[in-house]
Every structure is written in C-alpha cells, then in structure tokens.
Design a protein that fits this description.
Length: 238
C-alpha cells in the first residue's frame, strides 16, 4: 500500500471519530448539564528509508470538553442547582467519584441528596450531603451551604479537575478526572435553576456538514486510487 493511501486512511479514521463526536453533541442539545466535546487531531511524522520524504499521518484519539457556560433556566425546584462559572458537582457512583454539571437533585428516603440516577451528592471532602427532613424550608447559598429552618446543615462540594484535559466522559453528563480534582476557586451555585446543554446547534450542524464533505473527498481519492491500481495490474497482466 502506498504512503498516500496510508495518510488518507488515517485521515478518514480521524474524520469518522470527529463525526461521531459531533453527532453525539447534536443528539444532546436538550440534555441538562451536557458538555459538548471537540476532537483533538495530532500529527505523526515518520522518516522513510531510501532518501524518501517523510510520511505525515494524523490521528484523532483525544477529546476536549468544551467549558463554555450553558443557558441557565429557572425551575423553582428547591434542590435544582446550576453552576455559574467554573466547577462541577461531585457525586458518588459504584465506579468511584465522578464529576457532573447536571444539578437536578432530590433527597432520597434516607435524607441523602442524590441525582436522578440515585447517586449521592458529595461535599468537597467526599462525604455524602444530608438534608434533614421536616426541619423547615431548605435554602442553598451560592457557595453550596445548605440551611434548613435557617440553620446550616451541610455544604455541597464544587470542584474542578486538576487537569482540564484529563476529563473522560463516562456517559452523557458524568466525567472521570484522571488526575483528580481540587476545590473550585471560582463559580457559584444558583438554587432553583438548571444549566442547559452548552451545545451550539448552528455551529455543530455546520461542523457536521464540513466533516461529511471532507470524508467524501477522502473517499473519492481512495476510489480513484483503487481504480488506478487496478488499471496498472490489468496493464501489466497483458
């Protein structure tokens, strides 16, 4: 296989990955707390023997989580929380502590504050957040402090990944931080609000069209290259 074919194949593979990411972004336009992703392309240059020019190939193995703020929608729910600025909520899952921007919470039968999937919400030290029942109106301050009947009873943790490029999506709204996390120096919580998806639909649809056209161009090159090789084989066989 010729070097040009290798280069185009790696390009097609990267475009396929990018198209998959763009399609997932579009599919989650209405998902509360969803963070859009970009694909990071990297170039690999290999030296060739015999004095030939080097071979350059691209891969798209890394993803970048878009950090732009999503629209904040008022719900009035006492346990609905939106983050304004930097930071993630810390939650406990069977696989370990995870980060999320989806703040639709509710107390469970034990009084623990949990997500819609039943995962417990944690404070910045990793302890479950408890909301006493029947203690009066619940208020949540911008720093996450929970008060019941005017008395503070706990604080919801707000954290940032130690390495922003080390976030790994595990599902639509949950992330694993490969390098751990630290308390968020900035950012505030808004009670009675939820953050919508930060996907820009116009931008994503434009990207999808661009990637599809680039893929079609590469496929056209592959088809022409295949026909050229077949013609050469037929000519040599005569």
């Amino acid at each position: 296989m010729e070097n040009a074919t290798y280069a185009v194949l790696t390009r097609q593979s990267g475009l396929t990955s990018q198209l998959r990411v763009v399609a997932n972004n579009i599919a989650n336009l209405s998902t509360t707390g969803f963070r859009a992703e970009d694909v990071i392309f990297s170039e690999h240059v290999a030296a060739l023997e015999g004095g030939h020019r080097s071979l350059s190939m691209a891969t798209a193995a890394a993803h970048n989580v878009v950090s732009s703020q999503g629209t904040l929608t008022q719900t009035g729910g006492p346990f609905d929380l939106a983050i304004e600025g930097e930071g993630f909520f810390l939650i406990e899952t069977p696989a370990g502590e995870r980060l999320t921007r989806a703040g639709a919470f509710t107390p469970n039968e034990n009084g623990d504050l949990v997500t819609m999937d039943g995962f417990r919400v944690l404070d910045s030290g990793g302890a479950p957040v408890f909301v006493p029942q029947g203690a009066g109106p619940v208020g949540i301050a911008p720093d996450g402090t929970i008060s019941a009947g005017g008395q503070p009873v706990g604080q919801i943790g707000l954290v940032v990944p130690a390495d922003a490029t080390g976030l790994v999506r595990e599902d639509g709204v949950r992330f694993r931080s490969e390098e751990g996390f630290d308390p968020a120096p900035e950012g505030r919580m808004l009670q009675g609000f939820l953050e919508e998806s930060n996907v820009n639909p116009i931008l994503e649809i434009g990207r999808m069209i661009e990637v599809q056209r680039a893929y079609e161009l590469g496929q056209s090159f592959m088809d022409k290259e295949d026909e050229r090789i077949r013609s050469a084989i037929r000519a040599l066989g005569k």
